[in-house]
Amino acid sequence: MEITNQFSWMIGGPQGTGVDSSATLFIRSCAVAGLNVYGKREYHSNIMGEHSYFQVRVSENPVHSHVDPVHLLATFDDETARIHAHEVVPNGYFLYDANVTKPETLDLHPDVKILALPYSQILEEVSAETGQPLAKLQIMKNTIAVAASLAMTCFEIQYIEKALKGIFTGGKAKLVPLNLKVAEKAYACITQEIKNAFPYRLVAKPDAPAQMIVNGTTAVALGKLKAGCRFQSYYPITPASDESVYLESHPEYGVNVVQCEDEISAVCMAVGASLTGVRASTSSSGPGFGLKAEGLGWAGINEVPVVVFNYQRGGPSTGLPTRHEQGDLLFSLFICHGEYPKIVVAPGDMTECFNDSFNAFNYADQFQTPVIVLCDKALANNTASILPFDETNLRINRGKRASDEYLAELASRPDFNGKYPRFANSEDGVSTRSLPGQENGIYWCTGDEHDVYGHISEDPENRIMMDDKRMRKLELAAKTIPQDEQWKLYGPENADYTVVTWGSTKGPLLDALPILQSDGISINVLQIRLMSPFPAEAVSQILNRAKVRIGVEQNFTGQLAKIVRMETGIKMDHMVSKYTGRPMSETEVVAALREITKQKTEKVVLTYGH
Amino acid sequence: MEITNQFSWMIGGPQGTGVDSSATLFIRSCAVAGLNVYGKREYHSNIMGEHSYFQVRVSENPVHSHVDPVHLLATFDDETARIHAHEVVPNGYFLYDANVTKPETLDLHPDVKILALPYSQILEEVSAETGQPLAKLQIMKNTIAVAASLAMTCFEIQYIEKALKGIFTGGKAKLVPLNLKVAEKAYACITQEIKNAFPYRLVAKPDAPAQMIVNGTTAVALGKLKAGCRFQSYYPITPASDESVYLESHPEYGVNVVQCEDEISAVCMAVGASLTGVRASTSSSGPGFGLKAEGLGWAGINEVPVVVFNYQRGGPSTGLPTRHEQGDLLFSLFICHGEYPKIVVAPGDMTECFNDSFNAFNYADQFQTPVIVLCDKALANNTASILPFDETNLRINRGKRASDEYLAELASRPDFNGKYPRFANSEDGVSTRSLPGQENGIYWCTGDEHDVYGHISEDPENRIMMDDKRMRKLELAAKTIPQDEQWKLYGPENADYTVVTWGSTKGPLLDALPILQSDGISINVLQIRLMSPFPAEAVSQILNRAKVRIGVEQNFTGQLAKIVRMETGIKMDHMVSKYTGRPMSETEVVAALREITKQKTEKVVLTYGH
Amino acid sequence: MVTNLPSSEVQRKPKDYKSDVHPDWCPGCGDFGIVNAIQQAMAELQLKPSQVLMYSGVGCSSKTPHYINTYGVHTLHGRSLPFATGSHLANPDLQVVVAGGDGDGYGIGAGHFLNAGRRNANLAYIVYDNEVYGLTKGQASPTLKLGVKTKSLPLPNPNEGINPLAIAVSAGYTFVARSYAFDAKHLKETIKRAILHKGMALVDVLQPCPTYNNLRTKDWFAEEVEIGGTKYPRTYHLDEKGYDGKVHNPADEREIEAKKLQALQKVEASEPQIALGVFYEVELPTFLERVKPNIPLLQKYTSCKMPIEDPSTHVPTTDLSAAYAEVLTNTH
Amino acid sequence: MVTNLPSSEVQRKPKDYKSDVHPDWCPGCGDFGIVNAIQQAMAELQLKPSQVLMYSGVGCSSKTPHYINTYGVHTLHGRSLPFATGSHLANPDLQVVVAGGDGDGYGIGAGHFLNAGRRNANLAYIVYDNEVYGLTKGQASPTLKLGVKTKSLPLPNPNEGINPLAIAVSAGYTFVARSYAFDAKHLKETIKRAILHKGMALVDVLQPCPTYNNLRTKDWFAEEVEIGGTKYPRTYHLDEKGYDGKVHNPADEREIEAKKLQALQKVEASEPQIALGVFYEVELPTFLERVKPNIPLLQKYTSCKMPIEDPSTHVPTTDLSAAYAEVLTNTH
Ligand SMILES: Cc1ncc(C[n+]2csc(CCOP(=O)(O)OP(=O)(O)O)c2C)c(N)n1
Ligand SMILES: Cc1ncc(C[n+]2csc(CCOP(=O)(O)OP(=O)(O)O)c2C)c(N)n1
Ligand code: SF4
Ligand code: SF4
Ligand SMILES: [Mg+2]
Ligand SMILES: [Mg+2]
Fold first, then answer.
1. Separation of D143 CA from ligand 4 center, angstroms?
2. Hey, whose CA ends up nearest to atom 6 of ligand 3?
3. Do D137 and A49 touch (CB under 8 A)?
4. How far is A243 from chain C (nearest CA, A)?
5. Residue A423 confidence (pLDDT) above 80
6. Among A65, B10, C147, D169, which is 20 to 30 Å from C255 by CA?
7. Which helix (H) or strand (E) covers residue A451, if one does?
8. What residues are paired with B54 via a beta bridge?
């Protein structure tokens, strides 16, 4: 019984020994063959030596999450073998290096088959054939592991070659034949007998449309470029800095990426830049995001468009800095003392990362207020093959900006007093802004409450006018932002069970949905994308249609559930949480939701994964 | 018709010209006479010259707020006259300096009587009599204004003398006779005719118990001293720094008050100090409090007792830095990325400032976690005469600390591995802590998730254990903290209308309660003091007993109402808000609640006061 | 560096740089002198008000932008430099001037103060140095000396006072000067030079705070000091003593090193008199000059003027094909 | 200052200061050398492990406390000094040693770095200076020089590198030294002196990061430099060249001034060789010594040992009557 294009593969090893590049090769090979891929990356807060691994799921159809069972585990160190052996399914395979691992000492299911890969031998052969020093070839153990793995699925080697060509370009192109040679030798190790013993098959879909292989930080960076963001300030932090490094590495787009002395400087610099009219942004993760509180409040009261990304990771404090969590929702919604309008957006997949990143700059300009985009580590570091971004409907909206002509006209009026009422009251809460450098547009900014020109005012009537004006923007945003940028309902419109979720947790839920439906469960999934202003009415309506409401999110306290209750009064009947720092899998979500539908368990806490 | 011991007096003038000291003299004179006093202070974010004023209410019975009508307005500058003239009630009096103010140009009610005080003449006389240079006496215009005001109420001058003696002590005692001379001359100006025309009387209650005259910052500082806080780090900010300056000015209690380079340093220093076992604290206001996010999270994951005060003021950003607001509740509840247990307390009057300040250190030690105390500008800067603090039941609880003997015993066990499991799992969430310097107590701290010794651990099972353990403290706190430190219900247990409030807004509500009851309205007031862990069950029960629920708080968005809904699902039927930066008065609250009970107005926004 | 040279049409007077907001400083505050000097400097340089962006932090001194009739940004306590840097980098055509207190700049802002030296952005930074935190009622600022007890302090200052000029020299500031709030002409000239300087310029201005600092008063500055029996004015001008802080050949590392050391020696020296003037000055590439070679578009446009959309259809004009090519798998 | 002099009972070895946690630094990382030196210094000083509090920030280097068998506190990125200062002030009987990276200390922590000089608290601060942000994958740290492009950087560094030693001298540090991670003996001795020093001590340790900084490698440090045709080792020891950075009479302001200038001259000098050693050293009153006269109880107790309750009844022992008297009106 062969199982085609439903494959779960894992590779692991000490950090810095090429686990990531193996996974890249594997993922690209499959994607080039037209298959759909989702890769989960796990690593320690360490540069070299600690255990890391990559789990890749390949599928006939689009896929948004990983599964727990491993069909094939490829190892070249003993630690990976010891940690992950138990995850291999019966009839699955375990590949290892006999020089370092004794499989009999492992916690393998008795029905798992094992295969020692002759890593050293292959490398020695290649060294002899090419004259390359053996030490330099060690990194190619990865290629051996990938190629052997793919060979077992009867996957055509031509796609590996294509993938290598896509990976090694320019000056590195000479590495293609070397790697291919290694791959061929690995292929040669996989006998027909082995293939027969392994039921999983990967069959190319040559007519499938081209795909993009991206992780969230790249998708976000591409969205920023498209939106015309040309100033980015940042301070290094995992996992956010990959996004800034991407922009730095693409100077041809003209973004001035400034590495600051800290995150306070980063947000202030972005706000200062934005005041001149450039689209400006800054990205960080929890600890650094928190340092931006004051800058966000200042941008709020001064109505400055600025886009601030927070890539959530395991908290609190330094927490689990390279692990996944959705623990910053409440903090992000209420960040900074006092009250000001903020737009908070939470994309749930790579495509939404791109779109929300693009949209965020429009929101910022339209509503002249800070926009916070909440990503998470799973979005940032996991990899997916997806359809190319659809640019058709992307339009840039710079909001209300005073033209030179408009300012000149104002200045020609007899009552012009030499300054521009930049913060003039307005029905929708947004005033027309001038930019420093514009003649007749002189105004002031201040973190203090101020009058229409931006001068400090402690007058109570002015205060009410200004506070009301600023807060009205939230009503405007609620009306202006298209519904599908606010929330999405997956599955039938009416269902007994409605699952409420956000961010990357959408992935396993989308994959779980058809499985649960095929169980006969009437269920749908509500993903909330716009956290502020919160689409309370729509969420109320949808939740009121359901018989049972289930919150699924990756934190301890159920932060979205809290917000839903705060905004609608509706309490989740059940919760599914995970706070081990590892993202939920489809497998876990299916099991948890089955348990809830059958046993009415109030709260299911998921724990799987190393 | 005379009105006795129900008096509302106002004095104003440019900042730095002694408005505060006049109010102090007035308040102390009344309090010394056994009357109850509440004083509201308003000033600009400015050192000298901008308009400031003090409104003092005197009452037969304890009083917790100001009222809008002014019975007697004392001025010596024209700005105060222009700004406040309209507030004087018919039959009230307006005192002014004829050299600077032309009363006919003012917006005075026709039934207001006016009286020019001969400020210059009195000072010239005193200068002549005492030989003091006239310029040095200018500040005594305040004494003239106060004495003339009190004379009009037929108040005995002996209490002014007593007050002066209380104010000018030590080296300044020589100022008493000089001020008294000025006061006597002012008294002499108030003819019997004038007294007859003025219906308000202040009659001493010589048998009344002694009172304390305090504002919130002093009450807090006293609570800290009593609790044994011996380390305070701070960075100057209005209105919080008065508290630190109080502690600095009382070095005899042994508190090391360190002025830091910023608030980040302040919180980290307090946490570092606390690690050694000293009770440590830091105080700030919104902008500085926000900079403490990361330090709070670190203290949370490392289970360090630390007490952090946030004196709320008008936000967002620099906002209205010397004005009142309750705008930081949501930020304080959710401050810092990630999830950790925090205790959040909000005192509502001067006595609670003292008690909560004392209790906060017990909570911090008992639950080994940060405690945030939310004050507000009205608490900080307003002055009340209150009964002396009751110290009878105050006990110090240092929580679970490892004794040297306990550590020695552990170390003598054969399995002792030289390090102490400071973060050992425990049923109630609290582990026993050792202190650096203790032998056999060596452990580590880290902002990363850690094992029982405090070493970094990314292990998922350990993570669950630790997160569960830490978060269990909230359950412990909910059980341990006495009910009346969690919430208080004023008025009848059952009522048609239940008002929900917090912080200093309790003041006007308590004063409004009997008035509304005498209107025949069935009403009570629920003050919430413990914001985290939130007393959800009790609040639910109380709110479910009411027919109508009204939220009264001083911010734009109704932050407590949001939390009540988040925690109980219950929505306020009506809201009363104020966000002009000026605290609510009894007058306003009475009117708003009358309007709601009569006209069912959904939201009443209060605006009174300059 | 001045970006707005005199325009022949209008001749602007200092009053043209006054806004209609009345300064609410205490009588006798040194801040009045500094704002006057800034306005005069702007007038003499004939800066175009709409091309000037006046920045500040939070404090008494930081109310400055409101009193000056140019675009003005009153930011957060301690954060003026990062904000101003962002504006300058995104629109270097603006003349960005930063003002603020010593607490603001050397206390809470110390990290930005230090790191701004490394960047050498083209900013003029004027610090009002009154040794106290004025707006919060007179606590010690980082420049107050050890053991000093102003009337606003309950206890003597337990911290050593820092020397901001020495730190600026070491941190990489390319123009480092000191002046005095009531030395009108010297201050104005120094501010002019700081504005004209291409790169990161610091002017530390000694500023009496009559309300809280009862030691460094206007009178104190006016007092004479005795040196070896002779009386000298409290302050003197460096250039009048033949001191030359300027690096004349910025390509000569030896000269830079020598001039830096000379400056450090001068600012660290515990003289009875206080030296005013430019201690150090060198013209070196600014941050933007350093990054432009790496970001070709920045050579053509300032960041805020880079075209990003089709003006009529609002279709974004950024072509991502090259970036997509890196991640696309359309090779099969 | 050492507070724990050798106890006659036990003779501790460097391994007694090793914890059971295995360092997870990259092979060849200079951090190994530094931790070894710290452990050796502790052993030679015979510090009592339970009396030592080892602090750090966040970064590769900041994992240090976990590897040392004393009380250890791994704080927040950039904040080690404030935390450590709090512990030291509240319990000066502890020996507080602080370790951390150059990004941690001179980048995000720059404000604390500067202001710690003013306080002169009794702390030894060891900075692992590898010119990069190791743990976040090799971005430029504040000590990386202008224009340098390590293999981890997409574009050359647009910032000037700071000289932390010059800044420390100007900021008021009373002990300022430099050493090198693999100069085992010199480093150990320098750390010992920093610990023994009473006051705020900085040891900037040049540290190869083989993973990200491919320019300042162990090999580079081992290379010889040519000066006028002769080859010299890359690094040399100051004291071997007769340099004496110590102020011998701290009461003599002239000597302090001269030694400060000498140090600034030395650290700013662009030599082909790199000088290692103590550039500046002076014994001046520490923060606690300065505040004790004002807070009498601090002369009797350390803050953490001040009695605050009756041990059996837990009744607070602080008597507020005097404070109450100021606000009570019981005079009527
Ligand atoms: C984060 C933050 N902390 C504290 C304050 C309070 N604050 C306002 S002004 C000021 C000090 C001002 O001193 P300085 O910068 O020297 O200016 P000066 O008033 O002396 O001109 C402080 C601490 C604030 N606004 N923000
Ligand atoms: C507030 C905050 N910002 C950013 C980070 C991410 N971060 C962790 S380590 C590090 C840099 C470490 O560099 P350095 O201090 O030089 O130490 P090294 O790793 O080189 O030893 C950064 C930026 C953080 N933990 N906290
Ligand atoms: S407090 Fe000092 S600095 Fe502030 S305005 Fe008054 S005199 Fe000037
Ligand atoms: S990245 Fe560099 S500093 Fe960090 S452990 Fe590796 S070699 Fe050491
Ligand atoms: Mg100042
Ligand atoms: Mg480093």
1. 16
2. C26
3. no
4. 14
5. yes
6. D169
7. none
8. B11, B41
